[in-house]
Design brief:
homodimer; TIM Barrel; 7-stranded parallel sheet; two-stranded antiparallel sheet; 15 helices; globular
């Protein structure tokens, strides 16, 4: 079989067209997904392998995208660590036992082996059900983003507690990041073992940091995680608001660097170096625009990538719930058409 | 009289030490300010020239900073345009009559001459009361940031309505930006006329945009405003999350470009070119850290500026309400001490 375009792009090999998938492609904008969620809570869905696998596979096939991503959440790994992870209806995640002191860090457990077996099982079922030409992506939150949820107790705008923790007790911070890096490593390993063809590390909120804080307090821990992924499995290293952190993220590692829309793709790729692949970078809000405008913006991004092997088209962050489904189809078709070589 | 260090830095002339002031230096972290606000609403304070001038002057003198900034709000100019600007206690601003259509844009009025006379009067009184060595900064919101409040009806996280407006009706967007640019121009002109020694244009939320959208839909309007400020009055052009927009902001204009903490100051200055001054760029959250850590971080930023003329020390955004007052003093002292030449 020929290498699927997504995996070829991860390895910076030529592909017949630019592969495309969308973060949160299985999400609330899809009526089929909303129908499932009416009967099933979010965490329950994540924990039910046949349902999670079904959502994963059906979405990828229906959208004709070039990769599936296992249905799960970046925070799942925090649950077997004893954080008390909850998703209230309509709200973001909350952490029942926030981490505020060195003693709280000590109390966090290393997940038992097999604690997240339900995700591995979903990966196995999804991989079994997917057409061979569609690679399956496993994923996890990166240590900083996980730590920020643990410390803030949920989402945040300023990350004031997290940054104060770093500045006030750098030793406890290091211990926390090491513990998280270990847990994430084991979790990604289990997903690869179960059949994930690539993995994405979501450092979604790392863009709140100064480059200096990133280099000192984050980079070594990301490097430890990326370095431990089984050789040959591509790693996508993603964050948002990272226009000032690209060199640091590159140094931390990854075969593919995820870019958001707040950078020009060509300028960012030059800064990263062309010896790494890139993924991105359409503004998710652009999918609310008329289809002609969506096509124009897709063409502009493909123009910046200039047909260079190693570009995976994606949004700069997840699909928004208010996105019209036919706009998503239009984007996928536009990328395939406009990039056909 | 010698040129005050702040104005010298705006012009990239040598100064005996690096000048420092802080965005929102007169704010809720100060007990004196909270005492005044217990008796006076926010907009009422802005509209009472002797009180606004007093807050402006007392804060600058007390903090021993190198510039005062007139006590006002970036959104004041929207009020005489008929937007229905309100500040509810403890909440952010809200716009009673949001702009959602081309007809809404048409309905927005050009402010009557003198509509913001209370700000000009506060500038006159503050300038009269300030020591001659302390320059006074006037300011306004930049067209994009003002438009985003008008369209969203208040603050926003995604700016989805604003971006959809741009993509769906670029003609109405242009008309809106031109109207705002005219109003801002007249407003800044009135502040300079009244005695402001420099002005800052706050494009606080422009960092949500892609560089391409910035160049097409924002840059020409900022350029119109900056180009109309009276020659010889330094213009500081500020935004947050702008690590991907720096070249565009530079092209739009300003004698000084404001940087936030999410870029390395030295890398950002190189990208901008050393023929422009820079302002920044300590993370406001860093002021919650122990004083020794604040000093270390101030030293790191001064190190990146490398004593080059044309650096004004500031935070990357406004002082947070929970900031200890003595940490602010410690920062100002540290900048003066560590940069003394």
């Amino acid at each position: 079989m020929e290498t699927p375009p997504f995996l070829a792009a991860c390895r910076r090999q030529p592909a017949p067209y630019t592969p495309v998938w969308l973060m949160r492609q299985a999400g609330r904008y899809l009526p089929e997904y909303r129908a499932i969620r009416e009967k099933t809570g979010f965490l329950e869905l994540c924990r039910t392998p046949d349902l999670a696998a079904q959502v994963t596979v059906d979405t990828a096939v229906r959208l004709r995208v070039d990769a599936a991503i296992i249905f799960a959440d970046i925070l799942l790994v925090l649950d077997p660590m004893g954080a008390g992870l909850e998703f209230a209806r309509g709200d973001g995640p909350t952490i029942r036992h926030p981490v505020r002191t060195a003693a709280d860090v000590d109390r966090l457990r290393d997940p038992e082996p097999g604690a997240l077996e339900y995700v591995a099982e979903a990966v196995r079922r999804a991989r079994g059900a997917l057409p061979p030409a569609i690679p399956l992506i496993g994923f996890a939150g990166a240590p900083f983003t996980l730590a920020s949820y643990l410390i803030e107790g949920g989402g945040s705008r300023l990350y004031a507690r997290t940054k104060a923790f770093i500045a006030t007790d750098p030793g406890a911070w290091r211990a926390l990041m090491q513990k998280l890096a270990r847990a994430v490593t084991a979790y990604l390993d289990a997903q690869v073992e179960a059949g994930a063809d690539a993995v994405q590390l979501f450092d979604s909120w790392v863009g709140c940091l100064s480059p200096d804080d990133y280099r000192t307090h984050v980079l070594p821990h990301v490097r430890a995680v990326v370095g431990s992924v089984r050789r040959g499995t591509p790693v996508i290293h993603f964050g948002t608001g990272t226009a000032g952190l690209l060199e640091g993220m590159r140094a931390a590692g990854g075969d593919v660097i995820g870019l958001d829309w707040r950078v020009d793709l060509d300028a960012a790729w030059s800064r990263l170096g062309h010896d790494v692949a890139v993924q991105g970078n359409l503004d998710p809000v652009a999918l609310l625009a008329p289809v002609a405008e969506i096509r124009r913006r897709a063409a502009a991004i493909l123009g910046q990538a200039a047909g260079r092997p190693g570009h995976i088209f994606n949004l700069g962050h997840g699909v928004l719930p208010q996105t019209p489904v036919d706009h998503v189809h239009a984007l996928v078709d536009a990328v395939h058409e406009l990039s056909a070589r």
